[in-house]
Amino acid sequence: MTTLRLTQYAGGGGCACKIPPGELDDLVAALACPLSQPVDPAAELLVGLEGGGDDAAVVRLDAERALVTTADFFTPVVDDPYDWGRIAAANALSDVYAMGGTPWAAVNLLAWPRETLPMDVAAEVLRGGRDVAHAAGCQVSGGHSVTDPEPKYGMSVVGIVHPDRMLRLDAAEPGRALTLTKPLGSGVLNARHKATGTVFPEAVAAMAALNGDASRAAVAAGIRAGTDVTGFGLLGHAYKLARASGVTVAIDASAVPFLADARRAVADGFVSGGTRRNLAWVEPHVDFGAAPEAERLLLADAQTSGGLLLAGEVPGHPVIGEVLPRGAAPVVVRA
Question: Where along the sequence does the record put site: Important for catalytic activity (predicted)?
Fold first, then answer.
């Protein structure tokens, strides 16, 4: 089973296969129409499409509870089916953690080329997703599956959050430290894995790790602004946070942690199309100073199941910059 190269069955890989951020911005803007509202809504929408779209939608249940709902799925990012399932589940659950919430229940989303890939491989993918969700204390039951030329897997997740203790894109305040809870580099290492079959255990472990502890620590520390770092890279998600909050985000490049071998992968040319599209999208909004091309690509690297980017300091995680009053550029990269 593990001799199959799952990554060879997909044109893209992981969150690098997302719709390019500029195109997605236009698509979301077309939906965010204040004139279009539900008839007699059953719940108050607290977080929706404003500001370019947060990590999940949030609706109020009562004064102390709000429902968080999200969905996330992607093509294989690694060849091992169990690891792919673990990574995809951690990535979907991360949307709830990125809002400061707790995941309650999930259902599977599976697209499978059943005539070319055995169903027992699909079972391993589902087992990996189930095990990570259960480790998060999240129930998993059923879901939806379709036949598809490319394999895809993920989850739709529902969670709970206190309405006054959410993490959101538009709440970053000047004077706050900027914290990142996982190292960057999964995108270039996944690109190398797809091209060569080389396995990077540190990258797999990082992608499969849950963001739950970091999320709970952030909420307990009084942090109210944040997002997770996935397909749009650190720079893309920092730009979205700065744009929504009306601030400038300064990133100290020397403080940003990277996975081992990530710099070598860039030097050897293993850069996905998604990462290059990310860089092209953010370039007009970033003051790079003297940052070289390789550094820019790493900061824009399309992450899969990355860490949380938080406007505040969380013990045990590196501070990589700060939030400043809005300046000439929404994002500044400092040496």
Answer: 18
